[in-house]
């Protein structure tokens, strides 16, 4: 981990040397959220970086 960014009180993001997300720290999570919420955490709508461009198949194949 290169650095930690506090995005709000008791909620931190851990970033690598390239600035990519490698961890999420939620302090006192059970005091802030129900257990059902904790077990249903989803990152499907979390956009961390631009999607890589699709590579077209090579004509040489």
Your description of this structure?
The chain has two helices and three strands; from the N terminus they run E-E-E-H-H. It has 61 residues and is of the alpha+beta class. It has a domain at 3-39. The chain has a three-stranded antiparallel beta sheet with strand order 1-2-3, with no helix packed on it. The longest helix has 5 residues, at 35-39. The protein is elongated.
Write a compact overview of the structure shown:
With 61 residues, the chain is of the alpha+beta class.
Mean pLDDT: 77
Number of helices: 2
Beta-strand portion reads 25-35%
Helix content: 10-25%
Order of helices and strands: EEEHH
- Return Rg in Å: 17 Å
Enumerate the strands of the largest sheet in spatial order, edge to edge or round the barrel: 1-2-3
**Largest beta-sheet characterization:** 3 strands, antiparallel
Query: What structural category characterises the helix and strand content?
Result: alpha+beta
Please give a handful of descriptors for the protein shown.
elongated, 61 residues, alpha+beta
Secondary structure layout:
Blueprint: E1 3-8, E2 11-15, E3 21-26, H1 29-32, H2 35-39
Antiparallel strand pairs: 1-2, 2-3
């Amino acid at each position: 981990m290169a650095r930690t960014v506090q995005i709000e009180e008791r909620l931190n993001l851990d970033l690598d040397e390239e600035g990519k997300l490698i961890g999420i720290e939620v302090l006192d999570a059970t005091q802030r959220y129900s257990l059902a919420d904790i077990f249903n955490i989803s990152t499907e709508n979390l956009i961390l970086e631009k999607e890589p461009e699709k590579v077209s198949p090579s004509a040489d194949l």
